[in-house]
Amino acid sequence: MINKQVQSPAKAVEDIFDGATVMIGGFGEAGSPIELIHALIDQGAKGLTVVSNNCGSGEVGLAALLKAQRVAKVVCSFPRTANSTVFPDLYHSGKIELELVPQGTLAERIRAGGAGIPAFFTPAAVGTPLAECKESRVFDGKEFVMERGLKADFALIKGKLADTHGNVVYNKTARNFGPIMAMGSKVAIVQVERVVEPGEIDPEIVVTPGIFTDRVVEVANPAHESALVAAGVCYP
Length: 236
Description:
Layout lengths: L4 E2 L2 H4 L8 E4 L9 H10 L4 E4 L9 H7 L3 E6 L9 H7 L4 E4 L2 H13 L3 E4 L13 E4 L2 E7 L3 E7 L2 E3 L4 E2 L8 H7 E8 L1 E3 L18 E4 L6 H6 L6
Parallel strand pairs: 1-14, 2-3, 2-9, 3-4, 4-5, 9-12, 10-13, 12-14
Antiparallel strand pairs: 6-8, 7-8, 10-11
Helix pairs in contact: 2-3, 5-6
């Protein structure tokens, strides 16, 4: 039997190396793996490329990882959102690189990477600065821009429940990019509120099968980004 459970967030992220590409789940606060991100800050890896929907809020979670200047580049759709101050300061001072990607295109680039599709064509961004220097083609009289599939060395994901084989269930919107990031990464690391034995999860409700999951860590009482920001918490 393969047991994919690890004992702590620190153990789960211990081999993330300098310069790695890391996908981080989350749609704003929903699905943000705070404990895994904080463990990565403590671990010390730097020069990272982070693929995420946004750049975090306040000075916790993803924003804290940026503030620690461990990230060289972000690939995301919404670099500046409510309570987002860390990224704008880093970007305007030239300390971080940004690749801006429309949200639907970002999701499809990750999905394509996980499915082994090197590139695809989309009408999104045609005629905008985001299409500059990219190949375009006309299909049925309409212009499309070529986008490359995205892959990562690691993915940090938040689920609700998992078994020791790595089968994962999510909590509603917190699911967001998790399933495709698990597919698009070499090592998918998932934090969940509870880890159970194989057979305790109805296979009909499994969203991410264990074949796409490499490590599972139980975080029984995960932090909520909005609560930390409201309390003025800064990490570390």
